[in-house]
Amino acid sequence: MDINEITAAVVDALEDIKGQDIVVLDTSPLTSMFDRMVIASADSTRQTKALAHNVQEKLKEKGVPDQGIEGLASGEWVLLDLGSVVVHVMQPAVRQYYNLEELWSAAQDQRNKRNATG
């Protein structure tokens, strides 16, 4: 599967269990560690864990095994590493506090400014 198919499968798996506010960020210009970051919110620890497990299972069925999963014990923020795609499933308060979208967008803006000035 290519990166776009993997990302679409992740989003589908999150939508299956009512993941909210799903955002996909292209991180390829910023890091060589992964190409996409998918962030979603969940209403409870149970839903956070269920979303992460659903992504894990759906991608495994498609031949994309995970390389690690962190945060299942607390369930406030679960990170799933799929190699080229990293998935963050967070409860709203945690997501608002860490604000990954703004952090990575700011990094992209800084990179664009450096490239524009040469």
Automatic annotation (TrEMBL):
Entries under Gene3D superfamilies matching the protein: Beta Polymerase, domain 2
SUPFAM superfamilies: Nucleotidyltransferase
Keyword line: Cytoplasm, Repressor, Translation regulation
Gene Ontology terms: cellular component: cytoplasm
Record Pfam families: RsfS
InterPro entries referenced in this protein's UniProt entry, alphabetically: Iojap/RsfS/C7orf30, NT_sf
Molecular function in Gene Ontology: ribosomal large subunit binding
Superkingdom field: Bacteria
Keyword Nuclease: no
An individual GO BP term: negative regulation of ribosome biogenesis
Subcellular location: Cytoplasm
Function as written in the Swiss-Prot or TrEMBL entry: Functions as a ribosomal silencing factor. Interacts with ribosomal protein uL14 (rplN), blocking formation of intersubunit bridge B8. Prevents association of the 30S and 50S ribosomal subunits and the formation of functional ribosomes, thus repressing translation.
PANTHER family with a match to the protein in the record: IOJAP SUPERFAMILY ORTHOLOG (PTHR21043), MITOCHONDRIAL ASSEMBLY OF RIBOSOMAL LARGE SUBUNIT PROTEIN 1 (PTHR21043:SF0)
SUBUNIT field: Interacts with ribosomal protein uL14 (rplN).
Family: Belongs to the Iojap/RsfS family.
Protein name in the entry: Ribosomal silencing factor RsfS
Source organism of this protein record: Sulfuriferula plumbiphila
Gene this protein is translated from: rsfS
